[in-house]
Structures are given as structure tokens and as C-alpha cells.
Amino acid sequence: MNPWEGRHLGERTVAYDERDAILYALAVGAPADRLDLVFEERLRVLPTFALTLAQWAPDALGSAGAFDTSTAVHGAQRLEVLAPLPPAGELALTSRVERVWDKGAAAIFDVVVESDFFRATWAIFAPGCGGFGGERGPSAPARPEGDPTATTTVATAANQAALYRLLGDRHHMHVDPEAARAAGQPRPFLHGLATLASVSLAVADEVGAHPADLTRLEARFAAPVFPGDVLDVTTWVDGTTGRFEAVADGRPALLGGLASYA
After folding, report:
1. Were both Cys, which of 91, 127, 141, 167 would link to 52 (CB 3.0–4.6 Å)?
2. Any catalytic annotation for residue 210?
3. Which of 102, 110, 174, 229 is catalytic?
4. Going by DSSP bridges, is the β-strand pair 89-102/8-16 parallel, antiparallel, or unpaired?
5. Residue 70 has pLDDT above 90, yes or no
6. How many CB atoms lie within 10 A of CB 16?
7. Domain boundaries, the chain
8. Contact, 245 vs 252, CB < 8 A?
9. What is the value of pTM for the model shown?
């Protein structure tokens, strides 16, 4: 077993208010006329906002030396919603490394954050950390069979990464061209969680659900999305669940996506 597996990453109490939740909705593409997402008098908090409150956990694992933070990437994300987030309040969070999967030349660290309101898992792909004789882990989900139900577009904004980083993920590669080049990208790129949340809004529309009624979300991050890109989103709808993929400028950006709504 990898020595990091089962490692406790700490506990935190995080506070937020209506302003934070509204800024988040705007940063992931909610239109200004969706008053139930951007107006405090009618506010329903997007469940994916919880992921900004828990970003400290995968960052803490990198800071502890589990992997090289200059080469590790966010490989996938899962979110299980247990209860609606209130418009403002405090959340008690706890985190641990649930599993470390051995991919040979790399490892995948599953970082879990839990609270009374959600359970979220970051899958961090870390080159150079594999080869310890562990299990390879589950395979990537297969593409849905049959023709898709809908194809739509999601336009990202030129300032979207600059807005989203105000929610807590301040990694320089999302705003500083020099830092982006050091990370192997030609220019600053959008946070994967911002892309995922933006697409989940579109999938909710295809399913006919309110985006705040999200109960489960997951996807793999396959390629970077740059602010201003237009995403082509393909959705297979089955009841209140949408399986989806997203492509940006010909690059598969999100694969194996699934969003379920109450």
C-alpha cells in the first residue's frame, strides 16, 4: 500500500456569505437574469460552489510532498450532494487520502472531503509516483451507446479564469502567462472545476432540471480549456440524469461526464 493512502489531511471550518455564492454563480456562467442564482432575495446556491470551499484539501496534499506540484494535474472530479447549501453559513469539513492508484509511471491520489452537505473527491494524476505495486483502479467509463439526446454550446468568457480564481484557487497558471508556459500551456487556462460547473448548467437545461437540484456530478478532465473558448457539449439524457462530453476547439475537454438532478 502506498504510504499516503489513508492519510488524514485535516479539518477546517469555512465560512461564506451570499456575496461569495453569487460571485461563484457569475464566475461559472450564470446569466444575470437568473435571479434565483444571482440575487440574494431569491438565492439558491449552486451545489458545485462547495468545491471552492474544499480546494484547500488537494492543495494540502501537494504541500505535504506527496507529489510534484509542478507536474501533477487534476484528472477527475466527483461530487455527491447530501443536502442543499444554505445561502450563507459555516461548514465543518474533514479530508483524507482515500486511495492511491498505481498507474505504473504515475499514481492517482483520490482526495476526499466530507461534510454534512456534500462528499467530494479530487483525483490527482501525479507523474513519477507510480510503480509501488498497488491496484490500477477503475477504468474510464465507456461512452454512452446510441445517439445523443442533444448537442449545445457553452461559451466561456475571456475573464472567466480571473473571476473564478477569486473563489479560492489562486494558482498562478490561470492568470499569469509566464506561469502557464511553465506548466506547459501557451497561455493561462480555465480551472477544470469552472469548466465542469459551466457545463453542468447546460446539462441541467437539457434534463429540464434546476441546476441547484444537482445530486451527483462527475467527469474526467481531458484537455485544457482557455478563457473565451466555446465548448460543444453532447448530452445523453435518461430521466433526470445526463451523461455528457465537452469538446473545446476540437480538443476533448470533459469525458465520462454524469450529472444527476433531483
Report:
1. 167
2. no
3. 174
4. antiparallel
5. no
6. 23
7. 8-261
8. yes
9. 0.96
